[in-house]
Design a protein that fits this description.
Arc Repressor Mutant, subunit A; about 210 residues; 10 helices; Tetracycline Repressor, domain 2; elongated; mainly alpha; 2 domains
Length: about 210
């Protein structure tokens, strides 16, 4: 008896399954939002057995972090900040932030911040740490040690508040303000926090 030449294709379990899961998760997270995507839906989109999502990543949160890594090309402007003249860094930092926020993956990551703040405080802390490191690349080398964390915190607060107001809450008139107006209004504030004298003396740290 001849074997049937047509067989129903089952879920993939080969070496490409992990990458298929990542691509499917990235697409679904960006299209639907992180809180509307289940592991089973990701597996269906990737055409893999649902058990492989947990096998490869352990949890949806771990998969989320893997799928939404910021593309290298969006990181480069932040890494270039130390090579710019100090007076140009405030504007360059804000432009780099806007490039991230206006990227589909960047908006999804921002939504994840709100999601992770409630569901996974460790993931939230990791994102804050990445933001702080990006800000510190913009600080002048001459920044006093007792001012580094203060200036970083002020800039992080300003930039995060702007991003959430414009791209998550979509509050007007900021949501529809032309990008150049946004940069013109906020870059001087970032620059002031980077290099101008602080209007107060930083409190002593634990080791002071």
């Amino acid at each position: 008896m001849e074997k049937s030449e047509t067989r129903k294709r089952g879920p993939r379990t080969d070496g490409d399954a992990r990458e298929a899961i990542v691509h499917a998760a990235r697409s679904l997270f960006m299209d639907l939002g992180v809180d509307r995507v289940s592991a089973r839906r990701i597996a269906s989109e990737a055409d893999v057995d649902p058990s492989l999502v947990r096998y490869y990543f352990g949890s949806t949160e771990a998969l989320l972090e893997e799928a939404l890594r910021i593309p290298e090309e969006l990181r480069l402007p932040f890494r270039d900040l130390p090579g710019l003249p100090v007076p140009a860094r405030g504007r360059a930092f804000l432009e780099a932030c806007l490039d991230v926020w206006e990227h589909p993956m960047g908006v999804t990551i921002m939504r994840w911040v709100a999601f992770a703040a409630e569901r996974d405080s460790e993931a939230y802390r990791r994102l804050l740490q990445l933001t702080t490191e990006g800000v510190r690349m913009a600080l002048p080398d001459s920044t006093a040690l007792d001012e580094v964390s203060v200036r970083s915190g002020l800039i992080s607060t300003l930039s995060a508040g702007l991003g959430i107001t414009r791209y998550i809450w979509r509050l007007e008139p900021v949501a529809s303000m032309p990008r150049e107006q946004l940069v013109a209004s906020h870059a001087p504030l970032v620059q002031a926090f980077l290099a101008d004298p602080l209007p107060f003396r930083p409190a002593p740290g634990p080791s002071d």
